[in-house]
Amino acid sequence: MSPGHKRQIAEKLVSGGHCTARAACRHFGLHRSTFAYRVKQPDAWLSKLKSAVRRVSNQYPEMGYPKIARLLKREGWSVGGRIVQRLRRELGLAVPAKKPKRRRRGPSTGIPTKAKHRNHVWTWDFVHETTMRGGTLRMLNILDEYTRECLCIHVDRRINARKVRRIISALIERHGTPEHIRSDNGSEFIERGLRRWLAEKTIKTLYIEPGSPWQNGYVESFNARFREECLNREQLWTLTEARVVIEDWRWK
After folding, report:
1. Model pTM?
2. Rounded distance, CA 183 to CA 123, Å?
């Protein structure tokens, strides 16, 4: 039984003339100050503030208490962030914390290794650009980590996992089969069909940790040089022009 419940029963006994307040407190084990406590009536200013907090919070449900407090100050309320935070918690208006985004990861079939000879480790990555007309361009860059040779820069509007498979098949016929392929965890690289096809070709996958581009440093360095020396200097108007200009730069 809570102290408040005990106090309510003791008040009924005392008001009914069954015992004194001292005897009721002694019987229920209540402190005299607890028995004499009277609930304070809610402050009119606080009630109005609660209404204002509820109104502004419902109007801007995506905002947290600091921004809500600033909006209330603009309306003339003399409040700080702490009281707004407390009232929002009491009213059940607190914005729930965002759950961290779960990143997809591809299962590596080989251990991280440094390239020791040609066709030991290939690496690939995407670069995005737009034409002068606003069209999208997507470029798949494939390098041999040992020779640092750029084997391919495939330019297209869209490149999915099926197209990635066709591109790598053509490179295998031309240069031979690599032992490993290193990449990030892009959806095109971790697609189940592509991973199954690479396993059939006995090509081991090396997926870097999410958010760790330095683990794929060769292709990242190439992408930076490619953008600085080619994409930032050329005006690409069409897909065909982009393919010609980029292939010409690759052979320089």
Report:
1. 0.58
2. 6
Give 41's pLDDT tier (boundaries 50, 70, 90): low
How far apart (Å, rounded) are the C-alpha atoms in residues 105 and 187?
9
**Block residue for tokens 């292709």:** 219
d(CA 81, CA 64): 10
**Out of 95-104, 117-126, 236-245, which region has the weakest mean confidence (pLDDT)?**
95-104
Q: Report how far residue 15's alpha carbon sits from residue 182's, in angstroms, rounded to the nearest whole number.
A: 83
Question: How far is Cα 88 from Cα 90, in angstroms, rounded to an integer?
Answer: 5
The rounded distance, in Å, linking the Cα atoms of 72 and 80 is: 9
What is the residue whose two structure tokens read 């009281």?
83
Q: Which amino acid is at 67?
A: K
- Determine phi and psi for 29, rounding to 5 degrees: 70, 35
CA–CA distances in Å: residue 71 to residues 84, 86, 107? 11, 16, 49
CB contact at 8 A, 165 and 192: no
Q: What is the pLDDT of residues 144-189, one digit of tens each?
A: 999 988 999 999 998 888 898 999 999 999 999 999 999 888 888 8
Sheet (strand 204-207) strand order: 150-156, 136-144, 121-130, 180-183, 204-207
Query: Closest Cα to residue 117, out of 199, 180, 203?
Result: 180
Is residue 207 pLDDT above 70, yes or no? yes
Question: Which pair of tokens denotes residue 101?
Answer: 């985004």
Whether 114 contacts 99, CB under 8 Å: no
SS (H, E, C) 76-126: CCCCCHHHHHHHHHHCCCCCCCCCCCCCCCCCCCCCCCCCCCCCCEEEEEE
